[in-house]
Amino acid sequence: MRELGSLPGDPSGAVALVTLADVAALAGVSLATASRALNGSKNRRVAEELRERVVEAAKRLDYAPNPNAQAVARGRTDSVGLVMHDIADPYFSSIASGVIAGAEEQGLAVTIATTGRRPGAELEYVARLRRQRARAIVLVGSRMSDQVATARLVEEFEAYVEGGGRVAAITQPVLPVDTLAIENRAGAMALAQALVDLGHQDFAVLAGDPAVLTSQDRLAGFRDGLRKAGLRLARENVLRAAFTRDGGYEAMKRLIARAPDVSCVFAVNDVMAVGAMAALREAGLVAGRDVAIAGFDDIETLRDVTPALSTVGVPLRELGLRAIELALRESGTPTEVIRVAGRVQLRESTPPANGNTLASVLRAKEAQAVG
Q1: What pairs with residue 167 in β-bridges?
Q2: Phi-psi domain of 114 (left: phi exceeds 0; alpha: psi -120 through 50; beta: other)
Q3: Please, what are the averages of pLDDT over each run of 10 residues along the chain (371 residues)?
Q4: Distance separating alpha carbons of residues 9 and 30, to the nearest angstrom
Q5: Whole-number Å distance between alpha carbons of 71 and 161
Q6: pTM to 2 decimal places
Q7: Rounded to an integer, what distance in angstroms lies between the CA atom of residue 248 and that of residue 267?
Q8: What is the distance between the alpha carbons of residues 6 and 201, in angstroms, rounded to a whole number?
Q9: Given this model, what pLDDT does residue 350 score?
């Protein structure tokens, strides 16, 4: 028996590189015909008799097709590109698990690119995936208010789609691609109304960078809910910070230092809320007793947070599964925007108002320390 990869007729039996030209020669066909038979072609088909000859020759020679050559011939690879801001963030990792599960069901691999929220990084990675002929691209993450950057990303997607690619996004509906759009404004509005129903009237919001559209939408929705209840969110009680756990921690420390008369704090995402709860503990305060706190997204790691965090639940893993379904539809299928509603989840971190405010609790602690 000859060794794997050795050429027939080689008396030494030594391993040699088998090329497509060797397969074509053994099958008695041209190199182009051999390539089309093994790698496929979007434009030309090979007669079945010739295809069988080429396949048989490849088997005899133990020839392994070059995946890059297949990609060029077919116009796509067996990989899906997933572009997101931060895989360490539970919001993104939960969505990624859905994308990966859906891709694996289709026999596809997922290449993950994380931008670290760097300006221009999305465009860079999408362009790279287009050059690598990824079968589809899934984009996850808030859009920014930078219209020039958005326009450049749109151009890149248009070029990719013209080449036969498909794109699905989990973001605001501002791109000409299939989009799963979370109802951020409506969810935040519903949360505000639920918190008012618990008796809370004085609020602070830990908001992200105003350039982040998700932060804008959630802050606007929360204001809408308070306005509908006849309440006003004081401008000084909106604290801007990074859209991260550390951002929430830093913003809450600033709020504690100011000690306003607020009984409830809304962080525009759960990771900011988790950071805010850490700042409360550090100050000797207890979330849900000394001040109520709520977030948005219902990330999976909240099951380990005490007290349990009130939030707006979003089906993150299911979003990933749905996104890969959209991205793998046939080219030419009309794009659509699918609205995804959130659901208010009231838990121990937002009990009914008990008369405490951040200011009153801190005054009591100070008096106790003096006494």
Answers
A1: 137
A2: beta
A3: 34 54 87 76 72 90 65 67 94 97 95 90 91 92 89 89 89 95 98 98 96 96 98 97 96 97 98 98 96 97 94 97 94 90 98 94 88 63
A4: 22
A5: 16
A6: 0.79
A7: 7
A8: 80
A9: 98
Instruction: Please report, to the nearest 10 degrees, the dihedral formed by the alpha carbons of residues 27, 29, 35, 36 taken in order.
Output: -110
136 contacts 357 by C-beta, under 8 angstroms: no
Report residue 63 as tokens: 């020839």
At 238-248, the pLDDT tens digits run: 999 999 999 99
Distance CA 228, CA 180 (A): 27
* Ordered structural domains, the chain, with CATH: 20-74 (1.10.260.40), 79-182+318-343 (3.40.50.2300), 184-314+345-370 (3.40.50.2300)
In the numeric block, which tokens belong to residue 95?
A: 């969505």
Contacts of 168 (CB under 8 A, 6+ apart): 136, 137, 138, 139, 177, 178, 179, 180, 323, 324, 326, 327
